[in-house]
Amino acid sequence: MLAKTFLQRNVLVSRCLSSVTSSTLKVGDVLREARVYSSEDVKSYAEVSHDWNPLHFDQELARKAGFENRLVHGMLVSSMFPRIISSHFPGAVYVSQTLHFRSPVYVGDEILGLVQATALRETKNKYIVKFSTKCIKNHSELVVLDGEATAVLPSLELLQPSSSER
Amino acid sequence: MLAKTFLQRNVLVSRCLSSVTSSTLKVGDVLREARVYSSEDVKSYAEVSHDWNPLHFDQELARKAGFENRLVHGMLVSSMFPRIISSHFPGAVYVSQTLHFRSPVYVGDEILGLVQATALRETKNKYIVKFSTKCIKNHSELVVLDGEATAVLPSLELLQPSSSER
C-alpha cells in the first residue's frame, strides 16, 4: 500500500510537472511542499483570523452538512501558496490570487501544495511572475484547491533550490 | 480630529453602501467589520501558516523594499472575508475567492472589511451567494484589497443582523 502510494505520487509528479533543475527560476519550474493540518492548526488559525465557523470545530454539524469530518479553513490551506513562494524568494510581494475550493480538506489530511511558474517578466530590477497554484490531497490526484497567483520577486535566485518534496 | 474621522467614515459608508435593513440577506446588503492588525497577530499567523517572509518581520528590509513599515500578510487580511460571512451565516461553505492586493497593509493599520451580496440563487434548500469583497484602510477611501467571493449558505437568516460597524 505504501509502495502504491509512493508510486502514485511520483507518477503524478513526473507526468504533470517538470522539476526545478537550476537555482534560477524558469517558466515551467514547480515548487512544492506537503503539510498535514492538525486540530491545533485549525484552532490557532481561528484564533488569529477570528473565523470560528462551526464547520471547523463541530464534527456532528460538519457531518450533518454533508462532510466526512471537520473542515480545515480554506484560507489556511490557501496560505501554502505565499508560504511556498516566499520561502524560496524572501521579500516576494503578493499581487493577486484566485482560489477555487473544489473539494473539502479535513483535519488530518495531507495536502501537497504545488506552485508552477507560468509567465515571467522583468521590470525595474524586479520580476513579475505568474504561477498556477494547486493543492492535492492524500497522495491522490484529487485537486482540492486551485487558482493562479502573481507575485513580484526581488530576484529569480532560489533560496532553497531543493526540498524534501522535490 | 475624532469627529472628522467619524464623519469621513460614515459619509463613506452611507454614500457607497446600502445597509442591512432586515434579518434576511438580500442583494445589495453589506456586512462589515473593522480590525487593527498587531505585531502579535502577524507572528501568530506566521506560526500557523509557516509564512516567515521577512517583509513581515524586518522593518529595515521592508523599508529597503520600498514600504513604510512591516507588512501584514495579505492572506491574513483576506481572512476577514470568510470570517465576516461565517460570523453571520455559521455553516457557510466557501466556494471561491479572487484577491487583488492593491496597497500595503502595515502593522497597526485599521482595516475595514466590506462584504456586499451581489447575486443570490437557491438550490436544494441552500443558497449560493456571490459577494464583492473589499478592505479599506484607516478610515480613508483607500482600497487595499478587493475581489469577489462565492459561498454556499445554509440559510439567508442573519445570525447577527447588526454589529458595532453597522
From TrEMBL, chains A, B:
At the top level, the lineage of the source is Eukaryota
Q: In what residue span(s) does the MaoC-like domain sit?
A: 34-126
Q: Which UniProt keywords apply?
A: Lyase
> Which InterPro entries does this entry report, sorted A to Z?
HotDog_dom_sf, MaoC-like_dom, UPF0336/Enoyl-CoA_hydratase
Cite a single GO MF annotation: (3R)-hydroxyacyl-[acyl-carrier-protein] dehydratase activity
Q: Report any one BP term from Gene Ontology.
A: fatty acid biosynthetic process
Q: Which GO terms describe its cellular component?
A: mitochondrion
Give any Pfam family that matches.
Answer: MaoC_dehydratas
Please give the name of this protein: MaoC-like domain-containing protein
Write down the species. Answer: Brassica campestris (Field mustard)
